[in-house]
Amino acid sequence: LETESQLGGALERDELRLVYQPIVDVHTERTIGFEALVRWQHPSRGLLAPAEFMSIAEETGMILAIGEWVLREALMQLQLWRMDVPGARDLFVAVNLSARQVQDPEFPAAVARTLAQTRAEPAALHLELTESMVMSRSDVAVQNVTALRELGVRVSLDDFGTGYSSLSYLHQIPAHTVKIDRSFVAAIGEDNASATSIIGAIVGLGRALELDVVGEGVETPQQVEELRRLGVRYAQGYLWSPPIAPAAAQEWIREKA
Ligand code: G
Ligand code: G
Ligand code: MN
Ligand code: NA
User: Fold this and answer.
1) CA–CA separation, 118 vs 153, rounded Å?
2) Which residue's CA is the nearest one to ligand 2's atom 18?
3) Partners of 42 in the beta sheet?
4) Is the CB–ligand 1 distance for residue 37 below 6 Å?
5) pLDDT at position 186, please?
6) Distance from the CA of 186 to the center of ligand 4, in angstroms?
7) Which residues does the UniProt record annotate as the domain EAL (predicted)?
């Protein structure tokens, strides 16, 4: 309860932060974009990860205001980098959505407004959603995703392969990118033939449906070697970098974008 009332004031007190994890092309090893991840600089408990406050944010509905802040902050940051940092011109930023945002009929209009206000290029914004946020075809979520696509925004299916009906989900949601869940990547090298087969099958789907494929949670050179062999083009993970603060990301762009 205390956390709940404190979270209520976190936006006004400017306590939220974004950290950025590079997403790389596994052939060139160049950074092509960043996933933005929210943190709460709590007045007494230090820097909190989403696991410690996002469920409260969801339950109370504060997630809508937080989500708007995240979107605006990520796009403002991207614009600063694109204007000022050599190598940043073609970067994208990927923002995670919550179920409430995806189900909100006003969401596409809010995204359009934020894009206009920040003058960000729609294609430089990737919105990540998960299967559980988009349950049925009649859902407003499907209409929202279609409207977002029409704005020129790019849609990523996060944690792909872990839902109970990934194939029907892929059929319902017109996405640009699938992000292979890190559990499949972690299983590489653990003598797990099925993980390799599943990743290979996702790559095949990606080719057939013209989707970009990103491997998540890459921690070892062996894992990225196997992803390359399987035809996965993009990846992120601790092998390259954990999520980092904006100043460190800016240095990263100078060197690696
Ligand atoms: O950064 P970390 O690995 O702790 O993130 C844990 C989870 O929190 C991830 O599943 C991620 O998708 C989610 N998350 C991180 N940032 C945001 C955000 O800005 N909005 C939403 N809705 N979820 C986020
Ligand atoms: O669910 P989503 O894919 O949005 O989650 C992103 C989360 O994964 C972030 O909390 C981030 O800190 C975490 N993450 C990023 N790279 C790695 C990695 O290489 N290994 C592990 N275990 N977690 C990672
Ligand atoms: Mn994500
Ligand atoms: Na994921």
Assistant:
1) 14
2) 217
3) 46
4) yes
5) 96
6) 13
7) 1-257
91, 34 in Cβ contact below 8 A?
A: yes
Residue 188 lies in a domain: yes
User: What's the pLDDT at 128?
Assistant: 98
CA-closest residue to ligand 2 atom 21 = 217
Give the Å distance between the CA of 145 and the centre of ligand 3: 16
Q: List, for the chain, all residue ranges whose pLDDT scores fall below the cut of 70.
A: 135-138
The span from the CA of 106 to the CA of 151, in Å, is 14
Q: What is the reported pTM?
A: 0.97
2 occurs within a structural domain: no
Residue 50 lies inside a defined structural domain of this protein? no
In degrees and rounded to multiples of 5, residue 49 shows phi and psi of: -80, 160
Ligand found nearest the CA of 35? 3
Q: Which pLDDT value is given to residue 138?
A: 61
pLDDT for res 151:
98
Residue 29 lies in a domain: yes
Q: Is 219 in the pocket of ligand 2 (CB under 6 A)?
A: yes
Q: 17, 75, 96: which to mutate for ligand 1, most atoms within 8 A of CB? A: 96
pLDDT in tens, 212-247: 999 999 999 999 999 999 999 999 999 999 999 999
Ligand 2 proximity of 156 Cβ (cutoff 6 Å): no
* Domain at 69, CATH number: 3.20.20.450
Q: Which structural domain, as residue segments, surrounds residue 71?
A: 20-34+62-256
The per-residue pLDDT for range 103-113, each reduced to its tens digit, is: 999 999 999 99
Beta-carbon count within 10 A of 56 CB: 16
The C-alpha atoms of residue 131 and residue 177 are separated, in whole angstroms, by 13
CB-based contact 179:128 (threshold 8 Å): yes
Q: How many domains does one find in the chain?
A: 1
